[in-house]
Write a structure and sequence with these properties.
Blueprint: H1 16-35, E1 50-58, E2 64-66, E3 69-70, H2 74-82, E4 84-87, E5 90-94, E6 99-104, E7 109-118, E8 124-130, E9 135-137, E10 144-145, E11 157-161, E12 164-168, H3 170-177, E13 181-183, E14 190-195, E15 198-204
Parallel strand pairs: 1-6, 7-12
Antiparallel strand pairs: 1-2, 2-3, 4-5, 5-6, 7-8, 8-9, 10-11, 11-12, 13-14, 14-15
Helix pairs in contact: 1-2
Length: 206
């Protein structure tokens, strides 16, 4: 993972509140970069005081916005994703010394790819790739769930880590559906996939 830039370039014509907000963002980037240089940092162990809110929104399509504009640096988005934590009072970017709440419209991540293969033991596995660089194999620790949205459309998710889900992109989901197996249930036949020894239902068989 790329480290955080040592300095972020911010517009100069900002209010004091904006400057404090940007200063917190820069501090988070610098601290997260130091603690995340060797992989995912142990955010579940950090207990800093809540320091306020950041004007960061993760949209439903997985795009990260800061003050209404997309964060253009993929490495910076990836960096912040490694210090994202879901607490009872919402989503936060966390370091050992700071905790800043952000807004997440749906799931914080997007699953943009999935590969079906066999493990070394010959077990079917489905490996998902997210828009922030994570790779997870669906299974006991990374279940797939497919609730139905208000419009009746399936809205599939894969659990990534520590309460953080990725919305499975529509094209990825339909690729999975095209290769599903079918099995009977008391409610009728359902279509799904096997991964890492678990069956994941994707919807009723057509």
């Amino acid at each position: 993972m790329s480290g955080a830039p040592s300095t972020l370039e911010w517009p100069q014509d900002t209010t004091m509140t904006d400057k404090l907000n940007k200063g917190a963002l820069e501090s988070l980037a610098a601290t997260a970069g130091r603690h995340g240089a060797r992989g995912l940092p142990p955010v579940h162990l950090w207990r800093p005081e809540h320091c306020g809110d950041l004007d960061i929104v993760i949209r439903k399509d997985g795009v990260w916005l800061h003050e209404g504009s997309p964060i253009a640096r993929p490495a910076l988005v990836r960096l912040f994703s490694t210090v994202l934590r879901k607490d009872p009072d919402g989503f936060h970017l966390v370091t050992p010394v700071e905790k800043m709440r952000i807004t997440v419209e749906d799931a914080p991540f997007m699953a943009i790819g999935a590969d079906q293969s066999l493990s070394d033991e010959g077990v079917p596995v489905v490996t998902f790739r997210t828009n922030v660089g994570d790779e997870v194999v669906a299974g006991p620790d990374h279940p797939i769930r497919v609730p139905v949205g208000p419009n009746g459309e399936p809205r599939p998710y894969i659990h990534v880590r520590n309460g953080l889900d990725a919305l499975i992109a529509r094209s990825v989901f339909y690729d999975l559906v095209s290769s599903t197996q079918v099995r009977p249930t008391p409610q009728g036949e359902e279509a799904g996939v096997w991964s890492n020894g678990m069956w994941f239902a994707l919807g009723p068989a057509s």
